[in-house]
Amino acid sequence: MRLLLINPNTTASMTEKAAIVARAVASADTEIIAATSQMGPASIEGYYDGAIAVPGMLRELKERRVAGYDAAIICCFDDTGLEAARTFCDVPVVGLCESAVVTAGFLAQRFSVVTTLERSRILIDNLIQRYGMGGRVKVRASDIPVLELEDPSSGAIAKLRAEIERALAEDGAEAIVLGCAGMTDLARELRSIYEVPVVDGVAAAVKQAEALVSLGLSTSKRSSYASPLPKPLAGVI
Amino acid sequence: MRLLLINPNTTASMTEKAAIVARAVASADTEIIAATSQMGPASIEGYYDGAIAVPGMLRELKERRVAGYDAAIICCFDDTGLEAARTFCDVPVVGLCESAVVTAGFLAQRFSVVTTLERSRILIDNLIQRYGMGGRVKVRASDIPVLELEDPSSGAIAKLRAEIERALAEDGAEAIVLGCAGMTDLARELRSIYEVPVVDGVAAAVKQAEALVSLGLSTSKRSSYASPLPKPLAGVI
Amino acid sequence: MRLLLINPNTTASMTEKAAIVARAVASADTEIIAATSQMGPASIEGYYDGAIAVPGMLRELKERRVAGYDAAIICCFDDTGLEAARTFCDVPVVGLCESAVVTAGFLAQRFSVVTTLERSRILIDNLIQRYGMGGRVKVRASDIPVLELEDPSSGAIAKLRAEIERALAEDGAEAIVLGCAGMTDLARELRSIYEVPVVDGVAAAVKQAEALVSLGLSTSKRSSYASPLPKPLAGVI
Amino acid sequence: MRLLLINPNTTASMTEKAAIVARAVASADTEIIAATSQMGPASIEGYYDGAIAVPGMLRELKERRVAGYDAAIICCFDDTGLEAARTFCDVPVVGLCESAVVTAGFLAQRFSVVTTLERSRILIDNLIQRYGMGGRVKVRASDIPVLELEDPSSGAIAKLRAEIERALAEDGAEAIVLGCAGMTDLARELRSIYEVPVVDGVAAAVKQAEALVSLGLSTSKRSSYASPLPKPLAGVI
Amino acid sequence: MRLLLINPNTTASMTEKAAIVARAVASADTEIIAATSQMGPASIEGYYDGAIAVPGMLRELKERRVAGYDAAIICCFDDTGLEAARTFCDVPVVGLCESAVVTAGFLAQRFSVVTTLERSRILIDNLIQRYGMGGRVKVRASDIPVLELEDPSSGAIAKLRAEIERALAEDGAEAIVLGCAGMTDLARELRSIYEVPVVDGVAAAVKQAEALVSLGLSTSKRSSYASPLPKPLAGVI
Amino acid sequence: MRLLLINPNTTASMTEKAAIVARAVASADTEIIAATSQMGPASIEGYYDGAIAVPGMLRELKERRVAGYDAAIICCFDDTGLEAARTFCDVPVVGLCESAVVTAGFLAQRFSVVTTLERSRILIDNLIQRYGMGGRVKVRASDIPVLELEDPSSGAIAKLRAEIERALAEDGAEAIVLGCAGMTDLARELRSIYEVPVVDGVAAAVKQAEALVSLGLSTSKRSSYASPLPKPLAGVI
């Protein structure tokens, strides 16, 4: 099984970090193909970054078809362009947020997502409401710019831990979801510190993608995710 | 007051039709600047078309800044890229769906949206749930490809009327919202036929944009719609 | 265009203050006809005041028909008798709360309403849930009796500002809605102090009423708002 | 225990019919004091009728204080002025719709309300959503003017039965709630015909009022239902 | 009228305490038959205790049929096995949580439930969401093991009062619901201390059961609560 | 990895059928341990059957601890006793309904569940609302007693297919979920007939259980699912 792990931002170090985690949790017969978008912003912080990242991600999904992949994982917690990708692809596509909250939902009745900047907080909250988990989840921002997660000296981890501690103390959180792909390498350590489930979207998405492929299931092409109709396209996208 | 009416698809005839309606309802001192995206699909039918239309629309929003505009209207009923545009712009930005359902909400307790293709139906239903109107609205598809609305001989109007009649008979609809920018020129006639409010998103959006400008209000830059952070951008978007 | 601004309480100074704001935001060709109910309580604070204010408001709506008006604005943030008025009138009727939250919804994803007394807080919260905005809005009371807003020496403004500051600090509010018609003259100043959108219901309602009239739309008479059936009425109402 | 059964419309024959049912289900030590509003419409069909009925009902609640009552029942399925009455009274006040849906909720997971005219359907649906039962209940109109229920030759019962049969066949209704005070005398017979619980609001409200009085509980005067503040009242209400 | 008050835990002292309250509020012609499950845990604290308590409770419901009862009350605030009991019985069955929140709903717009341990908090919150009251209620745990409520020297009452005070101060609670059958004897005193309605589930359930029996209504056997189908049963239950 | 597939009903042929499907989709290094409850009903049709099945299932979960298992799957679409099992176990526990709707949610925006008897329909609908999928899913009953699925000559498959066809025609379903463990062997064939995703809970649950174990995650023991407190147990359970 070949899973395409596509980072919709253009920072290759984030892709690499995610690929390490993905490979560590993948089944023995799963190959992780890590891809970084070649077009778009260096990080996705808010609606604008997300919107302009989509065409680059879709292009990557298209170009990688030659070599082939059995499912795709969009490696951003905002589930950037997830619906467009599902429409575009014939194979299953999963997002990090969707995978993580679904996974946490098997483990806890109430939990908190800790993301990076305030500007992403409501965006993620809206996603989670769409996924039906709104009544069970609180989203918190920890005031960490995404790329600071790439820099061990940045103090980002201390901020993240402080926010997790607030979630445990104030929200009654029974589990924690890490709300950024750049936090993927921290889950295991945080789990041992706080003794609650700490769910990372990258790892969760790998398992959901594997599950769908194993089950022989793919995106319904009836109605919402029907393949794009052929039509004139102006300009280069 | 200068309102930018930006069509996120690349079909200029749709822009022109919408501009005629927009100018007809605009206040005497409002100038409608009609713009057609130069990059993207000829019509927006489903998630993929919507996603790839956004960069072209954002480019237009940027380039038109030189001449200036006081608010922008995204001229597609899917509210394509609305949140990205709000983040990007300092002036108010309104969508057709949001404007139309808000307007209908002042006139009726329950109403139906009649859109084009089945693939757009749930997309619009999800939007309306986000706007808080889910419990009051039913969305219907009339099996009309968007560009058939540009062709009077296509039979599109008969299909649309049949679907409106089903909405009135089966949904208990107290009003009808036309769920595609391409239907904008039909509202007045349908209103006189069916004797219920028939709301067109283009006209509704013009009035909402004018309202926000008159009130001296613009998009909050606190949290969700904070201006994009400066960051490296790879490739051409 | 003639808009009837009907104050459902019987305090003429509140009507006058609202009329000044209404005229300031109205279009050049809009005439604001300010009317004060002649029957009912001096202010509307809670359910009882609201209920006994309605007949006086409806009488005014009836008597002003001779001179004519194109739409009516119910000038109380509780949207007192709004549905009865829609049923009674052939022209559009808008409320302050409905208009204000709709307007704020174009500008912010999450926002707070700051009203007067605690007894009005849940009443307004229930209204906002009916309008579908429950998940996006927090309502706060600032412990100000309505008529204190008429008295500059009352300390009301300091209380209001303190509550707005709590909304910004604690709720993550991206915008503020002023939850009483008596606060209408404060919006502009508060906007410049807090640098977020501050929405006043009076001004918002004027623009919504103008929008509906311009669009040639009026309340649906199908089902919920069908005109009252003729029937015997006992007593004087 | 003395329960005031107050009919907010001015048709005494409806009051009498309801009083018979109320006395039949009341406990041995409960006295039913039946009162008809002296001011307002002959029947309540839609928002306008409801609004103008409230002052007459409140006056009756006030005047009957001399003789005293331990709780009040508002004898209309629209729960006309219920919140105003709760604010006004120191004793518990219950509505027919609220009592009936709560009662049905102990007996069935999903049920249907069958009311009179289409114009009351959404009004009742909104009430039921406020009471939290929206997901469990479907409201249907049977096209019966309220006062036809007073006339055995009107064909009203046949229409009502036809609508109940549709509810059982199409909605999966496990129980039926009669959605008008004027249907109160029909519950027992319909129950034996259809072999499902048929809940009448008058009877249900008597038991809820008795329950609250027996429990020594009354309306909270904290926040929402705080007693009206003393203030100038213009005109006669 | 004979009401079976069945305690699904096996602590007879709790049954006795509840029976005293039940008899105090019951109508003169109501006989309270108090029964303690003979099989299961000594207290119900969380999902596991609840699940293993059900068969013992159902056995009691079955064995008591010989002597007969007109309705049953499940005497635990978790509404343990309520739906199974409704399916099993031909007479009405009511739960404490359902009865208490319904009762409080007639008295207050927003209220708080104060229960025992944190492990029961979300369980009750989920129940209340099912009953449609989620938007009106906050559930709080007071860190009291259930059986400490049987011991006056345990400090339980001080903890309970502290939590009620937090509910009043922080939640805007207009009424309090006691979230454990073991608190049943405290309602009257707490009501006089805090001057808000304090609702106890045992007393509330007695009145709801009496109401249903008086109304001649029983559980619908259509669909959800249809009587169990005859089928092989392995083992002893 | 060892997964315990525990059938909470006592029909061993259903366990065997499910085990075949489970083994077919399990990863190469996953061992499926199939277990049939020794105590309880032969099939689970409605609330009563479900409640009395739980102790037998919990006993099996306990006794199988000696040999050990890494996660448990409750093999009934009603997610019988799922929360009690999560509280009881230290390893992850997943249900069929939860797993299936989560899986379908990655593939379709709107889908339908087709279950057996009408008495299970609302039970499953309520589950799905708890899982947050209520707005996306319609549940249908096909009038098939569970054990008829064990008998190829019963006509059950024809009924099931007819109901699936109604779901596709009337609900706009983009995917189908099979709402009974006894349908597990039919998914693949139905998928090829109808060309939409057909999700079977048994297979879906195997992959979710594998995912959780691979990720090193288990049920949170904070709050809702905290391990049962030690306490006296009366009788044999």
TrEMBL record, chains A, B, C, D, E, F:
Q: Which Gene3D superfamilies does the UniProt record give? A: 3.40.50.12500
Spell out the family assignment given in the record's similarity comment.
Answer: Belongs to the HyuE racemase family.
Q: Per its record, how is this protein called by name?
A: Aspartate/glutamate racemase family protein
From what organism does this protein derive?
A: Rhizobium mayense
Q: PANTHER family of this UniProt entry?
A: PROTEIN DCG1
InterPro entries this protein is in?
Asp/Glu/hydantoin_racemase, Hydantoin_racemase-like, Iso_Racemase_Enz_sf
